[in-house]
Design goal:
The protein has 218 residues and is α+β, with helices and mostly antiparallel strands. Helices cover 15% and strands 36% of the residues. The longest helix is centred in the N-terminal third of the chain and has 32 residues, at 2-33.
Length: 218
């Protein structure tokens, strides 16, 4: 009988001890999970006085945020991460970096559409034909009619110089003699780009004065 009682007490003690261990493990897990709390704060209880069976003055214990401190303790809390400090002053501007290397040339773009033809420009005065009809009366030569011809004069070499109101130095000349002269020639004057020398030839060698028509194409 006594042996059975001892065995029952021993079983009760083992069961009670196992229950206590499981309970402590669960409570510890809950407390650990709540420290720090959702706001990042850590809660504690600070002993302000010593008690016979309690903590000594000045001791600190960490508790769950929902747990109340005991008699003789004061609740305190602190953040796991400190508050953000003030914004520092703007730093000095750094030195300008070196110029980077020139990049590779990109591919050519597609050819654009052909634009519309523009209106015809005004006809240039220089493109209009220049001409003069020179007549010989006695020993005097004059311009009977013409376009942009301003004058004519005979030289001591029995040829004539026709003057125009524009540059004819790089133009082409055509002379049509009158009065049976077989050949005629016209060349620009090097000293004046507005003048043309016209020479009429008789019998292949003699220079003579006569009437003629001069056409200038520029």
């Amino acid at each position: 009988m006594f042996s059975l009682m001892r065995r029952a007490v021993r079983s009760r003690i083992v069961l009670t001890t196992a229950t206590a261990v499981v309970t402590a493990s669960v409570v510890g897990a809950v407390a650990y999970a709540a420290i720090p709390d959702a706001n990042g704060q850590i809660h504690g209880c600070y002993a302000t006085s010593s008690t016979l069976l309690g903590p000594t003055k000045g001791s600190l214990r960490v508790v769950d945020g929902d747990e109340r401190c005991r008699a003789g303790e004061t609740a305190i809390a602190w953040s796991q991460v400190g508050p953000a400090g003030p914004t520092g002053p703007t730093g000095a501007i750094g030195a300008t970096g070196a110029t980077g290397a020139t990049g590779a040339q990109g591919p050519s773009g597609p050819q654009g559409a052909q634009g519309r033809q523009g209106p015809a420009g005004p006809t240039s005065a220089a493109s209009s034909p220049l001409w003069a009809v020179v007549e010989l009366r006695g020993t005097q030569v004059s311009i009977a009619t013409g376009n942009h011809a301003t004058g004519v004069q005979a030289t001591s070499y029995d040829n004539t110089v026709v003057t125009f109101d524009r540059d004819v130095h790089d133009c082409a000349f055509q002379v049509t003699p009158r009065g049976g002269f077989p050949t005629a020639n016209a060349v620009p004057v090097d000293s004046d780009v507005h003048e043309v020398v016209v020479t009429l030839t008789l019998n292949g060698s003699s220079f003579v004065l006569g009437s003629y028509s001069l056409t200038v194409s520029c």
